[in-house]
Write a structure and sequence with these properties.
2 domains; Peroxidase, domain 1; secreted; mainly alpha; Peroxidase, domain 2; metal ion binding; heme binding; single chain; 328 residues
Length: 328
Amino acid sequence: MATAKHHSSPCFLFLFSLILFQFHLGKCDLQPNYYSQSCPQAEAIIKREVTNLYHKHGNTAVSWVRNLFHDCMVKSCDASLLLETVNGITSEKTSGRSFGMRNFKYVQTIKAALELECPLQVSCADVVALSARDGIVMLGGPHIEMKTGRRDSRESHTTVVEDSIPNHNDSISLVLSRFQSIGLDVEGVVALLGAHSVGRVHCVNLVHRLYPTVDPTLDPNYAEYLKGRCPTPTPEPNAVLYARNDRETPMILDNMYYKNLLGQKGLLIVDAQLVSDPTTAPFVQKFADDNDYFFEQFAKAVLLLSENNPLTGDQGEIRKDCRYVNSI
């Protein structure tokens, strides 16, 4: 008995193809030069503003790198970090994990320049990503080719901030698990923490390593330096007292951070654990030995971080003002 053959009608195939096409329109991947048609000067404008701000306020470059970390580690690279507390939204910046973050007002400087050139075209999420990329270069680090096309969240993710961003006092195993949840392997985590090569730490976050007794894993001379920077065990939380992880090249992103770790000059507990933990210690040594290799792995880690679960296609929105969702 002959088996009946079933043929899909041309109409069915057309409808099926249309559904697939609409699906891909709604959810698409990040891509190179996403703004080549809608705002051809977008990346040049961001680079120009980042450069100008760096020459006026050098610490902005460090802020751009930290913004990327705090935005992308919390659910999505979607600029949710930048939202203010208003209209039922609680800002992620209210979390203790955001302590010490600064220069948010200069994000608006970059965004305003973009809005003048091409209104409502460039997302705040892409401003976060590309300002970090250009800030890394200003700090002497590697250039990282980033894709664009991120869109902005209409909601804050305050409730999951503390479950997403590791604390400086967490165990290294917990820190690794946080990063591994977004796809970073151990080497990538050690490379990404190389961002501690620049910037500074408020005394309130490190005095527990100095008082009442000095942490034995700290180099004694380094501990004396830290005590000079932080002379009291009970500093005011917002006091402008701080210490640097890297005194030799404090505003240059390089492998001096790892050399200092090997010399027992890790500022935070998480830094010190990179050397003491057998899982991470070999990578500390590799990066200390080879700055080019550190740059290579750092660039890979930053790129992976920057592509964590972005909103794309018709998800989210393009905010006019990075601090607030657009009016409905």
